[in-house]
Specification:
The structure is a single chain. The protein is α+β, with helices and mostly antiparallel strands and 629 residues long. The protein is 57% helix and 15% strand. The strands form three sheets. A six-stranded antiparallel β-sheet has the order 3-2-1-6-5-4. A five-stranded mixed β-sheet has the order 12-13-11-14-15. A four-stranded antiparallel β-sheet has the order 7-10-9-8. Strand 14 (480-484), helix 15 and strand 15 form a beta-alpha-beta unit. The radius of gyration is 35 Å and the shape is elongated.
């Protein structure tokens, strides 16, 4: 590694800005470096920028999850509503990287919405503005209960522009605005905003993140209102000791579930842990169902009665992941109802966090395998470091596998293109999960999926191909055909071997499909003489051993002449009479030898397909003996 290349590691280590990565190239060019050296530096720069981008992405995701968990912790110890709302607005502004963030609440008496908390605002007029329902971007969000975003507010004709609102927005200098609703059940209680003083496009993940903060804010307001209602009820029923004890028990149960759910979030619990905790608190059977709730049930943060059950949608950012279902509890008091709804909200946060981490790992595994296939000349030390972070054994023998979904009639249905695209995505997801569990790599390629998986002790490439076809086919409930390469020793130490191995796996995959063996997995060694032609390494000895090895070994042990008998038998058109003339033995001797060969090779050894392979193996065996002599 040159001094200039090492400079990129120093830039990564100290978190230098993007523009600093041009300096080593400029210095080398000024120092009279040649084209080859400059090209190598340029490649090192691009790789360093990709690593920097990945690190930045991970830091951003960690910061987002940390902020969501901190917000959940704040709710568990809620003391002052304004402090919690201010913390939510501050975190939203910081994570989305906007210049301004603010939160407004609806006024049911006046029928409009007013500013409650601002962060980054400098205009007093803006901080005191009130919006009528349907007016401006915020009024439209409050009226429709849907998020809205604009990259240039004053040029956007979707909103009802009024002089008061436009004047306040202009006084603040805002241009790009994103607003999401704060909802309690089906009721909109306010709007959470993030805005910039320049044109900007907000991404879908940012809309979902702000929506999660809005859900937290709604829970904070709801919790404060619930506590206020409880205090009022306790004051009114001060003389009724029984009612006081009942309400105290309700509050303790709500506090308990808050604490338990917060603990689950902080220690990385799963959705089934949440269901078990809520089951214990509510004294019922709560289960997580992955199927989508019906249209009437899809309302984030709101539970709906369904017969004797209660269903709370688990959703975030407009996407529904499933539902928490409380079984056979037709009567549910409001606090228990809120408990179920908050459990659904926590479940959605856990699923979002898990999916974000899974997608990041899937992308990193795919990028590493793509580099091994397309750019094997990359720095091998960096390849090993990336593999180590994915817990991939860089020194174990690996097998390259090519997989495709093979459905009968594929490509003939009306929406064949859309179905194939969905199939590829499903296959990639299942393959990525398999690669993660086996400490391997997976990526989408050539209309299918390519995997690089380690071989277990005593495992063959053909065994791994069959296991992979069975696993993927079972996961997708579709036939998946898998072709495997011969084992690749230490692929990270010899990345140039991965692309030829993939080509061999593709040839095996194509051969299986031509042989009408869709849904199976195989390596070249499973395909007889066809495999001998498909494999990159011509394993002639292995082919001979697999085909007639038992007969050769029998001759060596017993001093018999079965190999020569087979050769003469095939040469005479499988006629015992002509064979005995060629060998100068009795016809009964030929029959006995043929019977013995059948017991060694199996009863189908004279079938056309087996006979062709055996004759080829006999010729190769004779050639190898001639070479040895």
């Amino acid at each position: 590694m040159t001094h200039e290349q090492a400079a990129y590691l120093e830039l990564l280590a100290r978190g230098a800005p993007t523009e600093a990565y041009d300096r080593p190239v400029l210095l080398a060019r000024a120092g009279g470096a040649g084209p080859a050296e400059l090209a190598e530096l340029e490649r090192a720069k691009q790789l360093a920028l990709r690593v920097r981008a990945e690190l930045e992405g991970r830091r951003r995701r960690e910061a987002e999850l940390s902020a969501l968990f901190e917000t959940a912790h704040d709710l568990a110890g809620l003391r002052d509503l304004d402090d919690v709302l201010r913390a939510i607005v501050q975190r939203a502004r910081s994570l989305l990287g906007t210049e301004v963030a603010y939160l407004s609440l609806n006024d049911p008496v006046r029928g409009d919405t007013y500013m409650r908390v601002t962060e980054g605002s400098v205009s007093a007029r803006f901080q005191q503005v009130r919006l009528g329902m349907g007016e401006g971007l915020g009024g439209l969000v409050a009226q429709t209960a849907r998020p809205y975003v604009t990259d240039d507010y004053f040029q956007d004709g979707r909103f009802q522009h009024t002089e008061a609102i436009d004047s306040a927005v202009g006084d603040e200098g805002l241009v790009a605005i994103l607003g999401v609703p704060l909802t309690l059940g089906s009721q909109v209680i306010g709007v959470l905003f993030a805005a910039d003083r320049r044109a900007r496009v907000f991404e879908r993940e940012q809309v979902a993140l702000l929506g999660s903060f809005a859900a937290h804010a709604a829970v904070a307001i709801d919790t404060a209102n619930l506590l206020a209602e409880t205090r009022s009820a306790l004051a009114e029923l001060e003389r009724a000791n029984g009612i006081i004890r009942e309400h105290s028990g309700v509050i303790e149960r709500a506090s308990e579930v808050h604490d338990r759910l917060t603990e689950l979030v902080l220690r990385g619990g799963g959705v089934h842990d949440v269901a078990a905790a809520v089951s214990e608190v509510l004294g019922g059977d709560v289960q997580f169902a992955e199927e989508r709730p019906g249209p009437a049930r899809i309302s984030a943060g709101h539970a709906t009665r369904d017969g004797d059950d209660w269903v709370a949608a688990v959703s975030a950012g407009g996407e529904t992941f499933g539902a928490l279902v409380l079984r056979e509890r037709p009567d549910l008091d409001p606090v228990d109802l809120r408990t179920l709804e908050r459990a659904a909200l926590v479940t959605s946060l856990l699923l979002l966090a898990r999916r974000s981490a899974g997608e990041a790992e899937q992308r990193v595994r795919g990028e590493l395998l793509d580099d091994l296939l397309d750019a094997p000349d990359r720095d091998r030390r960096l390849l090993r470091e990336r593999a180590a972070r994915l817990r991939t054994d860089t020194d174990a023998p690996h097998v390259v596998l090519a997989a495709r979904i093979d459905r009968a009639g594929a490509g003939t249905e009306p929406d064949a293109g859309g179905r194939e695209s969905a199939d590829r995505q499903r296959l990639r997801s299942a393959a990525s999960h398999l690669a993660a569990t086996r400490q391997g790599l997976a990526s989408a390629r050539d209309g299918g999926t390519v995997l690089l998986l380690p071989l277990g002790p005593g495992e063959r490439a053909a065994d791994l191909a069959r296991q992979t076809a069975k696993h993927l086919g079972g996961a997708l409930r579709e036939p998946v055909t898998v072709g495997a390469s011969a084992p690749v020793t230490a692929p990270l130490a010899h990345p140039e071997r991965v692309a030829p191995a993939y080509a061999e796996a593709r040839r095996c995959l194509d051969a299986l499909r031509l042989l009408h063996r869709q849904g199976e997995g195989a390596a070249a060694e499973d395909l007889g003489f066809l495999g001998l032609l498909l494999a990159d390494a011509r394993d002639i000895e292995g082919f001979v051993e697999r085909t007639i090895g038992q007969v050769v070994a029998y001759d060596r042990r017993r001093g018999t002449d079965l190999v020569r008998t087979m050769d003469a038998y095939f040469a005479s058109g499988m006629s015992p009479a002509r064979t005995k003339d060629d060998l100068h033995v009795h016809v009964n001797t030929v029959a006995q030898r043929v019977d013995r060969i059948g017991r060694l090779l199996g009863p189908d050894w004279q079938s056309p397909a087996r006979a062709l392979e055996i004759q080829l193996a006999l010729r190769l065996h004779a050639l190898s003996d001639a070479v040895i002599r």
